[in-house]
Structures are given as structure tokens and as C-alpha cells.
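Input (structure):
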């Protein structure tokens, strides 16, 4: 479990050295869903990070061929997406019938100076809006920021207000540390209670379960706040993430609460591998499609 989170953390730390962010191309997921087609299922590109970084065009083509309709981005640098310009990237997406309804964009306490968002963060959101992004989701919180939950909630509120002017919705994605209480109150509770109601949360179901939480309890308490979920399963023996359907998480029970939660987006993610990443996300997709939601 530690290696999974550490590799993700190291990537996000490194990405802060450049202009952080990810751009998306999308209309709302449910705009044109065909009957029986689960086009609201997506895959976080972090799952296949080596493939998409080496050859994004080939990787996206493989993902589309599996039956995915949506992907979730995780980063871009200097106006490029895995080495492609915005135009090249969007063309590749369109050529493969893919959309990007959400992406992970980092923000830290250092992105606010004297109460103002940094120009680099603003530019990231502006670039995202130019290519049709609908959601900007914070994927992680740095160690130093975790001990100041209310400050981070204020920063999220400020960032969300700016995002709103660009027709973007702001959100946050959890790991397991949010369910700890560094200052006497669980960080996740602090964030939910001190952010504006239009700020959404992408619950990583695996990390919530690892932390001993029941997702449905959070859905019931904070109705409508959870528009996204990350879907990866839990191996109870090795205590690592595995492909959907190969662990002990009762996804159907969780998905039965989708209307209470406000769920719209079901995003496959892998952080540990029993087989190649591409094989893993295809197995996850096929097993996820068997569920009702």
C-alpha cells in the first residue's frame, strides 16, 4: 500500500516544478448516453502512465478499442499533453471517440499569495477551459498542507470561485490520510464542512475502504457532494489495489447509493499491477459493466 501512494505522491511533487494541471474535452457525460451503453465509465490515465507517456496516440487508441468512452487526465506541462499540443491531443481524442470529463490538477497552499491565486494556477485553469474542461479535481494534498485543513478549504473555495468564472467545477480526490484527525477533527470532515456546496468530491473507494470507512455513510451525510468515484478493488490478503471484481469491495452496494451521493462518473484506476496496465484496465472495465448503476 505504501509503494502505491508513495509513487503517486512523488509524481505529484515533481509535477509542481512545472505548471501543474490537466485539460479536458467534454460535454456533460449524460448528454448523449445511448440506451444500454455505459459511457459514464472512464479510466484515469495514471493507470497506464507509462504507455500514455511513451506513445499517447497509441495508448488512447487502445483504450478506446476496449470500449471506454471517457478518460480522466492527470497532468500537462508547458501547454502540452504527453508531448502533444492541445490541438494534437484533442484531435487524437476525437479521432478515437473519447471525451475527458475530468482531470487531476494540483493546487497547494503556495498557490495563494497574499490572499490571491497565483498567475500560474489561473493560467492552468484558463487553458483547461479553452479546451472544454468541465471539472478540475485536486488529486492529492502535500504533507505540510494536511495539518491546516481549514486553510486548504479556504484555498479550495477561492480556487472554485475563479474556476466558476470559467464554467469549471472544482473538486477534491482522497487517499487514506484524509480520514485521520491531525487536529482533533478528521481532515475529510473539515474539507467537506468548510467548502462551498458547489465544490464536489471524487471518492476513491479503495482508499476509503483501506481507511476503514463505509462510502455509503459519507454519501448519506453529505448528499449530492460526490459526483465522481474512483473504482479499484482491494486485495484483503496483500492489502493492495487490484482490478475491479478481483477483490473484496462490494461495489454494487455502494453504487446503489449513487442518487444519494450525486454520482455521475465512475472512473477505473489501477495503482498496483498483477498483469500489464492495459490488460488490467480492460478487465476492470468488463467487470464494472456487469454492475447496475
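Output (sequence):
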Amino acid at each position: 500500500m505504501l509503494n502505491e501512494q508513495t509513487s503517486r505522491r512523488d509524481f505529484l511533487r515533481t509535477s509542481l516544478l512545472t505548471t501543474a494541471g490537466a485539460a479536458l474535452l467534454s460535454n456533460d457525460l449524460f448528454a448523449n448516453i445511448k440506451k444500454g451503453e455505459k459511457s459514464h465509465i472512464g479510466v484515469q490515465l495514471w493507470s497506464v502512465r507509462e504507455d500514455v507517456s511513451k506513445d499517447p496516440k497509441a495508448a488512447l487508441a487502445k483504450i478506446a478499442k476496449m470500449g471506454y468512452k471517457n478518460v480522466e487526465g492527470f497532468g500537462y506541462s508547458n501547454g502540452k499533453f504527453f508531448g502533444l499540443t492541445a490541438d494534437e491531443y484533442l484531435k487524437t481524442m476525437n479521432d478515437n471517440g473519447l471525451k475527458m470529463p475530468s482531470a487531476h490538477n494540483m493546487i497547494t497552499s503556495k498557490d495563494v499569495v497574499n490572499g490571491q491565486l497565483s498567475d500560474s494556477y489561473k493560467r492552468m485553469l484558463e487553458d483547461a477551459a479553452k479546451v472544454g474542461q468541465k471539472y478540475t479535481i485536486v488529486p492529492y494534498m502535500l504533507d505540510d498542507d494536511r495539518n491546516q485543513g481549514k486553510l486548504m478549504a479556504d484555498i479550495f473555495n477561492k480556487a472554485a470561485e475563479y474556476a466558476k468564472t470559467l464554467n469549471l467545477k472544482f473538486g477534491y480526490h482522497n487517499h487514506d490520510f484524509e480520514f485521520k484527525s491531525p487536529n482533533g477533527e478528521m481532515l475529510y470532515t473539515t474539507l467537506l464542512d468548510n467548502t462551498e456546496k458547489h465544490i464536489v468530491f471524487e471518492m476513491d473507494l479503495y482508499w476509503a475502504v483501506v481507511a476503514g470507512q463505509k462510502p455509503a455513510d459519507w454519501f448519506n451525510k453529505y448528499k449530492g457532494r460526490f459526483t465522481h468515484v474512483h473504482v479499484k478493488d482491494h486485495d484483503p490478503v496483500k492489502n493492495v489495489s487490484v482490478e475491479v471484481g478481483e477483490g473484496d469491495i462490494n461495489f454494487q452496494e455502494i453504487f446503489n447509493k449513487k442518487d444519494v451521493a450525486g454520482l455521475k462518473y465512475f472512473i477505473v484506476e489501477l495503482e498496483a499491477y498483477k498483469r500489464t496496465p492495459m490488460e488490467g484496465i480492460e478487465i476492470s472495465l468488463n467487470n464494472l459493466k456487469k454492475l447496475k448503476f
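Notes: The chain has a mean pLDDT of 87. The first helix runs from residue 2 to 15.
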